């Protein structure tokens, strides 16, 4: 598959299930979320962006680490669910956006791309990386986490995403975690 999985694909998934990947109940997701937050240490981020926020399960956890958090997703159904979940959090905004075309203006001290970059073909994923780098604050962090098991549905595999990130970013890799099910990379802007 070489085409981007776009809005129609995700709207269809959310029409069939309010939680298509079992974010709320999956042991895999809960363990990955804990490890992802642990990599960030005790830092608090002034302004953060979560790309591909889905229904906001991780967003809810990340919100405690951010003074301001913008969560975006391509699916209006997912955005509605995330807005409902996060309605009591005044410092969190949830918006429907298509990346990289509708990238919000930074700078962001943290950008999280969890389980989202393999929905793009290679060149489009690299375009997303470029806009992330452009909108990342000096000294900011880019955190990428992706499923490693092979799937024929996505244009890229998780390991491919992380190899492309490592070879094509100007950011410094501060930490890599490779588990059987996922790969996590934390990059930082050294400027």
Describe, in short, the structure shown.
With 191 residues, the protein is of the alpha/beta class. The protein has helices at residues 7-16, 27-39, 57-62, 76-85, 122-135, 158-168, and strands at 45-51, 66-73, 92-96, 108-114, 136-147, 172-178, 182-188.
Looking at this protein, list some descriptive labels.
single chain; 191 residues; alpha/beta; seven-stranded mixed β-sheet; 6 helices; 34% helix
What does the model show?
With 191 residues, this protein is an alpha/beta fold. The protein has six helices and seven strands. The protein has helices at residues 7-16, 27-39, 57-62, 76-85, 122-135, 158-168, and strands spanning 45-51, 66-73, 92-96, 108-114, 136-147, 172-178, 182-188. The protein has a seven-stranded mixed sheet with strand order 3-2-1-4-5-7-6, sandwiched between helices. It is globular, with a radius of gyration of 15 Å. The relative contact order is 0.16. The mean pLDDT is 91.
Secondary structure layout plus pairing:
Blueprint: H1 7-16, H2 27-39, E1 45-51, H3 57-62, E2 66-73, H4 76-85, E3 92-96, E4 108-114, H5 122-135, E5 136-147, H6 158-168, E6 172-178, E7 182-188
Parallel strand pairs: 1-2, 1-4, 2-3, 4-5
Antiparallel strand pairs: 5-7, 6-7
Helix pairs in contact: 5-6
């Amino acid at each position: 598959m070489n085409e981007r999985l776009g809005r129609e694909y995700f709207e269809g998934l959310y029409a069939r299930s309010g939680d298509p990947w079992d974010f709320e109940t999956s042991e895999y997701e809960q363990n990955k979320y804990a490890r992802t937050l642990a990599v960030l240490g005790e830092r608090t981020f002034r302004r953060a962006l979560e790309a591909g926020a889905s229904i906001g399960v991780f967003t809810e956890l990340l919100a405690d680490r951010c003074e301001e958090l913008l969560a975006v997703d391509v699916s209006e159904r997912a955005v509605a669910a995330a807005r409902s979940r996060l309605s009591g959090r005044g410092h969190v905004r949830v918006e429907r956006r298509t990346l990289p075309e509708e990238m919000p203006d930074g700078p962001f001290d943290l950008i999280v791309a969890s389980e989202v970059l393999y929905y793009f073909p290679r060149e489009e994923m690299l375009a997303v990386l470029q806009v992330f780098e452009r909108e990342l604050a000096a000294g900011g962090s880019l955190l990428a986490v992706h499923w490693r098991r092979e799937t024929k549905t996505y244009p890229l595999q998780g390991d491919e995403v992380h190899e492309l990130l490592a070879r094509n970013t100007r950011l410094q890799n501060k930490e890599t975690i490779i588990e059987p099910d996922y790969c996590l990379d934390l990059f930082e802007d050294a400027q």
